[in-house]
Amino acid sequence: AQKITQTQPGMFVQEKEAVTLDCTYDTSDPSYGLFWYKQPSSGEMIFLIYQGSYDQQNATEGRYSLNFQKARKSANLVISASQLGDSAMYFCAMREGIQGAQKLVFGQGTRLTINP
Amino acid sequence: EAQVTQNPRYLITVTGKKLTVTCSQNMNHEYMSWYRQDPGLGLRQIYYSMNVEVTDKGDVPEGYKVSRKEKRNFPLILESPSPNQTSLYFCASSRFWAGSGTNEKLFFGSGTQLSVL
Question: Is the CB of A95 less than 8 angstroms away from the CB of B104?
Fold first, then answer.
């Protein structure tokens, strides 16, 4: 079974609009962490935001926020006031705690295109 | 500047010709890992290392070798590359990989685009 699922292969959004990128995960480990990375066309992987399974509040980093719904096992990335520079591939990833393997597990990615 | 450095950035080779992709980090990180990225599959782990002289297989280790003789370096070796190893490769590191420390993020290198003809 997929541990991380990103159901949107591609999204197109108008500049200045907010955008939500979906991510669902599957784990039985009570301790885990969820990450979002951005991959622009230049190819590098840029860390955006982190949410821990025991965190009481949704994580925020500037224009990025994470809509964490633990019961639904979803960790959607919200980008407010999108900009042309937000066009990129976005990956959701999970790290499990005690029960997990020594790796980040990645989703398939969502390609976001911001239209002017 | 704290970084993970991979070389080369691009590499075109032929089937069977041994190659090495180098990876070095200057952050004194204990944990290092190699991933490959393929369309529709995301990133998949090839090998990882918890510390010097400690390496282990990830999800897709076939056809690859690694070594960790020094803390900063973690080269990826393809002894006899094949076309199905054409991919984008990433080296990554983090301070450590303890079971309960779920907030340790990975720092990634810039990637190596490998084409095997």
Answer: yes
Torsion of CA A67, A108, B95, A26, to 10 degrees: 60
Nearest Cα to B50, choosing from B28, B31, B68?
B31
Helix H or strand E segment including B42: strand B42-51
Distances (CA, A) of A69 to A60, A61, B60: 14, 18, 31
Question: Tell me: the pLDDT tens digits for B28-82?
Answer: 999 999 999 999 899 999 999 999 999 999 999 999 999 999 999 999 999 999 9
CB B100 to CB A97 under 8 A?
Answer: yes
CA distances (Å), origin A26, targets A30, A70, A73, B57: 11, 11, 7, 22
Q: Does A35 touch chain B (CB under 8 A)?
A: yes
Q: Could A4 and B42 be called an inter-chain contact, meaning their C-beta atoms sit closer than 8 Å?
A: yes
**A27/B17 Cα distance (integer angstroms):** 41
Contact A21, A112 (CB under 8 A): yes
